[in-house]
TrEMBL record, chain A:
This is 2Fe-2S ferredoxin. Coiled coil: none annotated. One of its GO terms (molecular function) is metal ion binding. Keywords: Iron, Iron-sulfur, Metal-binding. The keyword Transcription does not apply. It comes from Muiribacterium halophilum. The keyword S-adenosyl-L-methionine does not apply. The lineage of its organism: Bacteria, Candidatus Muiribacteriota, Candidatus Muiribacteriia, Candidatus Muiribacteriales, Candidatus Muiribacteriaceae. SUPFAM superfamilies: Thioredoxin-like (SSF52833).
UniProtKB/TrEMBL annotation, chain B:
GO terms for molecular function: ATP binding; protein histidine kinase activity. Its EC number is 2.7.13.3. The keyword Lipid metabolism does not apply. It comes from the Bacteria. PANTHER family: PEROXIDE STRESS-ACTIVATED HISTIDINE KINASE MAK3 (PTHR43065:SF10), SENSOR HISTIDINE KINASE (PTHR43065). The lineage of its organism: Bacteria, Candidatus Muiribacteriota, Candidatus Muiribacteriia, Candidatus Muiribacteriales, Candidatus Muiribacteriaceae. Keywords: ATP-binding, Kinase, Nucleotide-binding, Phosphoprotein, Transferase, Two-component regulatory system. SUPFAM superfamilies: ATPase domain of HSP90 chaperone/DNA topoisomerase II/histidine kinase. It catalyses: ATP + protein L-histidine = ADP + protein N-phospho-L-histidine. GO terms for biological process: phosphorelay signal transduction system. Gene3D superfamilies: Histidine kinase-like ATPase, C-terminal domain. InterPro entries: HATPase_C_sf, HATPase_dom, His_kinase_dom, Sig_transdc_His_kin-like_C. Residues 1-107 form the Histidine kinase domain. This is histidine kinase.
Amino acid sequence: MTTLNELKKLKEKAVKELKTREGKATAKITVGMGTCGIAAGARDVTSSIMEEIEKRNLADVIVSQSGCMGYCEQEPLVEVEKDGQKVIYKKVDAEGAKRIVAEHVVNGNIVGDMVFSSEK
Amino acid sequence: MMIELALNILDLVENSIKAKASFIEITLDESTINDILTLKITDNGQGMDNDFAQSIKSPFITTRTTRRVGLGIPFIRQITEMCEGEFKIASEKGKGTKLEAVMKNSHIDRPPIGDIAGAIRSLIVLNPDIDFKFTYKKDNSDYSIDSREWKEVLGEVPINSLDVQKLLKKDINEGLKNLGR
């Protein structure tokens, strides 16, 4: 129950921060978590993305999950939605996930060698 | 085939998410005394007819539209059969679905539980609109986390905000460590 006390403290701080940031997300990262994605390593990719976000303190990035998109042979697939553009990356591993966060989510440069598809 | 039970759990929970569940309960019960490991997943999703629920133990029965084979349930069923256990599924339309996978804990084919802390954390963070209760029992001790309790304290602060994520990680890791995991 000590955690819930910590949580209460954290909440007070977070409420103040929410007001200054207006809760707007600058990017959304979605990891494919169907049977195919998970078997191909999507859980490690997700952990890697979450670690990188934590390390860089990216409070305005949302991580989400989706089911199978039908391209099982390209899994793990990771979609990044940023500045009105959607990019899907294929065969992402833990290292690739870190590159996506650093190069695309933070710096706005699409990681060319891993792109599966992109649309405006 | 999944290499960790934690991955089977993620995979099976995906079925509950697709069934539009708003609450998913995951219980792992490891009894070294009786040498039995039981995994239970219960959701309040849309459920299925019982006949259909029994038929999906076959990989060739699936609701998938992207291909004609569904492997999530067959994978866990195969594991239970390899480990001298059994797999049960019960479902009711409009009420939800219950899965139970029983394995002989010490069986050589019993996959490692793996990074269950990472799996539970990512389920809670990646699906902020769904509530999860996770319990890990080991003989006479247990650890439990219920996202509904966290959300009650958090109020308007999202459960997937960065600071909450860090605390979730700490709580789950420490809780499981206390059980010797």
